[in-house]
């Protein structure tokens, strides 16, 4: 019998399925909740032949999707993504997220910010009023000691993520991650400021989800962001004019 947390993940993943329509390009997240969604999506594709194209956010999700028989594409074939379904570590009341405890934040953001709809799957325990928790920051190994010194001024407990035998954790992109516990009062500002540090490649601060599906052991409730859904990449108006993505 599955435990409460597994049931909650399953119910959130199940609730994401109706958002997927024939012919869509779907971004596949990374992590234990996203994995459940990938398996459910693959089963639906086998039953209904929706002709989906999928873009994965990590080597793990790519392998899993390929094994399950989903058709994988790259950005070469998918300039804009219809919908992304991913997990998160923390979700604030204003639909900002902390992501990246699974180490896939860079590719996750590349995909999420180019999607028309970003759907996030979580359990109740990840909801907060304000964004607070570990902010994972992907950094170039060459610059990691310098970036760690700089980030330590903002977060005293910031440290390099380690894997087995105390060696640095290496992302799918060959980089390191600094984990910085922080209270994030202005997510967009902190995201921009951290990325201004040379050597910082991406942060786990995501400034908008469109739909948050909050699973529990008996079902799922839906939180809808009232702000108009449009790819985050295009929130910069001069870019929006130049990138004719729709
Ligand atoms: C990976 C992530 C994951 O989505 C996040 O860590 C949540 O994972 P899980 O569903 O296993 O709790 O951001 O980089």
Description:
The chain has helices at residues 4-16, 32-48, 59-67, 105-112, 144-152, 187-196, 237-242, and strands spanning 25-28, 53-56, 81-87, 90-92, 97-98, 115-123, 127-128, 131-139, 159-160, 176-184, 200-203, 205-206, 211-215, 220-224. It is of the alpha/beta class. The strands form three sheets. It has a six-stranded mixed beta sheet with strand order 2-1-3-6-13-14. α1 crosses α2 (32-48). It starts with a helix and ends with a helix. The mean pLDDT is 94. Bound molecules: ribulose-5-phosphate. The site of ribulose-5-phosphate (5RP) has 18 residues, from α2, β3 and α4.
Topology of this structure?
Blueprint: H1 4-16, E1 25-28, H2 32-48, E2 53-56, H3 59-67, E3 81-87, E4 90-92, E5 97-98, H4 105-112, E6 115-123, E7 127-128, E8 131-139, H5 144-152, E9 159-160, E10 176-184, H6 187-196, E11 200-203, E12 205-206, E13 211-215, E14 220-224, H7 237-242
Helix pairs in contact: 1-2
Ribulose-5-phosphate is lined by residues 29-34, 86-89, 99-105, 108.
């Amino acid at each position: 019998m599955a435990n409460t947390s597994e049931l909650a993940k399953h119910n959130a993943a199940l609730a994401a399925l109706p958002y997927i329509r024939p012919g869509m390009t779907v971004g596949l997240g990374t992590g234990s909740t996203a994995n459940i969604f990938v398996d459910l999506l693959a089963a639906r594709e086998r039953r209904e032949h929706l002709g989906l194209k999928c873009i994965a956010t990590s080597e793990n999700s790519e392998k899993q999707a390929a094994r399950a028989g989903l058709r994988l594409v790259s950005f070469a074939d998918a300039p804009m993504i219809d919908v992304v379904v991913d997990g998160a570590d923390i979700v604030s009341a204003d639909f900002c997220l902390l992501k990246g405890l699974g180490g896939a934040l860079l590719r996750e953001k590349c995909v999420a910010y180019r999607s028309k709809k970003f759907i996030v799957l979580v359990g109740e325990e990840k909801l907060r009023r304000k964004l607070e928790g570990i902010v994972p920051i992907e950094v170039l190994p060459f610059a990691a000691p310098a970036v760690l010194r700089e980030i330590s001024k903002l977060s005293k407990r910031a440290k390099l993520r380690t894997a087995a035998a105390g060696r640095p954790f290496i992302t799918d992109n060959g980089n390191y991650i600094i984990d910085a516990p922080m209270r994030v009062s202005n997510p967009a500002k902190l995201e921009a400021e951290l990325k201004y540090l040379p050597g910082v490649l991406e942060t786990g601060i995501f400034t908008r989800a469109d739909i948050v599906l909050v699973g529990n052991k008996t079902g799922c409730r839906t939180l809808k962001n009232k702000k108009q859904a449009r790819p985050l990449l295009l929130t910069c108006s001069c870019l929006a004019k130049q990138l004719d993505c729709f």
